[in-house]
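can u do me a favor
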């Protein structure tokens, strides 16, 4: 973890490179990017869960169909 002097040097270099007006724009863009990333990860998890649910339902339907066929053969 950088110390106080190191942080001050880093902040000074950032201000020199980007200027005082660009830093808020960069922070805003970074925040928006992080928010979009979290939303995409959350949506992706939902899609994966939905695909798994569909797969489980299909397997249950196949098992039920097999049981119905076996029952009708016995009757």
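np, heres the sequence
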């Amino acid at each position: 973890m950088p110390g106080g002097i190191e942080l001050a040097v880093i902040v000074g270099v950032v201000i020199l490179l980007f200027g005082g007006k660009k830093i808020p724009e960069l922070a805003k863009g970074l925040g928006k990017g992080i928010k979009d990333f979290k939303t995409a990860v959350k949506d992706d998890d939902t899609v994966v869960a939905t695909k798994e649910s569909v797969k489980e339902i299909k397997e249950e339907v196949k098992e039920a169909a097999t049981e119905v066929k076996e029952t009708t053969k016995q009757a």
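DSSP finds one helix and no strands in the chain. hope that helps!!
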